[in-house]
Amino acid sequence: MIYWVSPEQIKMCTHVVFKIYEHTNSIIDGDWDKEKSPFEDATMFYSSFKRRLAGDEWDNIEYYKHNAKLISQGEIRWGCSTADEFLNRCKGLDKIYTNIKEFGFCQTDINDFISVAVDRDGQLLLCNGRHRLTFSKLLKLEAIPIKIIVRHTKWVEFCEQVKGYTNVPGRGGKIYAPIDHPEFTHWPIRHTGRSSIIIDHMLPSGKTVLDIGTHWGYFPTILERLGKKCVGVENLGEQLFFLHKLKKANDAEFEIVSDDIFNYIGEGKKFDTVLALAIFHHFLKTEELHSKLVNLLRSLEMKEMFLLTHSENEPQMKHAYVDYAPEKFAEFIIKHSCLDSYHEIADFNGRKLYHIFQSQNADLYPQPIQDFRIIFVAFVNATYPQIFKKVDGQIRGLKANHPNSHCIVLGTGDDSVDTSAYDFDFIDLRNFENGYAQRGVIAAQILKRLSPDVIYMRYPPADAGVEFITRNFKNILFEHQTIELDELIKTNPNSFINELAFGSTCIQRGLGGVGVTSEIVNYERRRASKSKSYRVMGNGIDEKDLPLSKQPEKSGKIHALCVAHYNHWHGLDRLIKGCGNSPEIAEKFRFHVIGDGPTLHEYKTLVAKLNVGDTFIFHGRKNKSEIDPYADISCFAVGSLAFFRNNLKQIAALKHREYALRGLPIMFADEDVDFNRSMEFCHIINHDESPVDMISLLDFAQKCRKNPLLRLHIREYALKELNWTKKMKTVVEVARRALERDIFNKNHQ
After folding, report:
1. What is the spatial order of strands in the sheet that 341-348 belongs to?
2. d(Cα 714, Cα 730) in Å, to the nearest integer?
């Protein structure tokens, strides 16, 4: 697996030799991790290359002289057997440094990475790649790709303790908030999306931060890396154990206060920013705590606060002394503190996030802008009409929120596809000499003429053409549909190499972006920078695109619809195996499989092998009107059952939204950002390789049959929550905030 870290997170190097070609995910006990030294002090090349940048010639620098001496004694160094050969190699390192400075970190060898070992405390120790790490540190790159090749046994045991904590009933196998350590990149998380919004709205000149109820220290960790001096208050023993461990793992320096917040503030403390995220409602439960909260607010010297409220009428607040509605809670803060203004900046399923501040400091924040131009760019060939349809819906939604928007789509045309009905300009690359290969240059020329304030780009993924665009335009927001490297390594090796070489450079040059899930957003922010503007925006739908399906029969066979271009992550094999395990239940179903794709033959073979040919009917590829009759007889629809095969825990599948627009209940695996277990029309199965449990699926289908209004409720939800007009509001917001911050930073350099 490839991880992304700031070069500054690798501070030590191990003395024990672990070669990348000999170790992959090794777990080793013992004291090997105690033999280490600070990288910048102990690495000869680091100090030597600093002298080279200062103007010294290689033959006067220790790194060259040391290795030239060893070569003269008969050693072979990096394939060099003479001093002249080694001097030429050193000059080659000059060129590598210059290329990284101009084009960014370019990882082209999929086997030879900067590699690290993780010690017993979770700290990263360099094993291989001192030259590239040196360049990355000196150039202050935001993030670089690494591989973890060795882990200490005690660190692995700690990770198991984290896993054990998440598996306690009620925690759903998820950590409470992100952990800013590469080890936990793909762990499922309960609460995400808050940090980027808070960073976007923080007082730029603020230096000190108090995080009340810091839990495991996520906010102090990331804010410290942005130059803030942080204090995290936490007095729950179980949380303190993980808090101290993770602080050490991240080599963080923020202060931990393991005391009651009321005692701590009673000593008289002053902070620029206070974080009160889903914590203050606990102080409303008794009259005594409420009184202490009032005194706390009166004592706090601060310039701003970020308040995340509880949802109104939560069961835990049933017998509370007082239960403030979200806006009343913000007003309560103002009444009893030195702050006097507030506005809502986010809503997390009823838990509202407020920025509360002093109006006298309004001029110290980035100033609001309204008049700016967004150009939406997508690279899509005409042979993908479903993506054309999506981009068309997106630009319509974007214009509904921000009229000063325009969209161009570049791709290879098809004479059988009419593009004139779409609300974008299609640039047919067949009209240009070597057009497909030159699409980056062509796009850059068009963008130069259009002069956008913000470019919103559907991530292609990266190649030399995208690199060329980002080299010429720094005002790009990217839309990410997946964790690109994890998907491409399985589906498109050539694109994987290009993404590995150019991807991080491209997104680090941009302003930020959106991802269709919080998992994707967390990953892309790790590749880019914690200071970038990022938001979650699940896929949407065009409300006029599909009709409401008719009510199916309440007796007889249970029909179900499954439409896709089938790939390994659709996981229809799980359903087929489930039917094979329960043939008597499978006989009650008829699954209408519509579409094509690389795994369709595999599914047909499995159906024949398990003798469930009467249960699965393969109809081939059909257009949407031809699908309507099958939707009308279907009791429910089958969504994605194995997205975890792309190393993803969350999805935002377009077909789930299309099913909802038809009014069809949905079965799927994993977690979709717009659907959850509490919705009566969702049947969510385990995110693993186990066959589908046909007993529970039958129970779900029978319940759906009994509810005559269910289809109307599902469609109403889709029309209200999943339309592109609502979704693209997020793009306008992130574009505005990114542009405001960019202008502010340029004016204050």
Report:
1. 255-257, 229-233, 208-212, 270-277, 301-308, 351-357, 341-348
2. 23
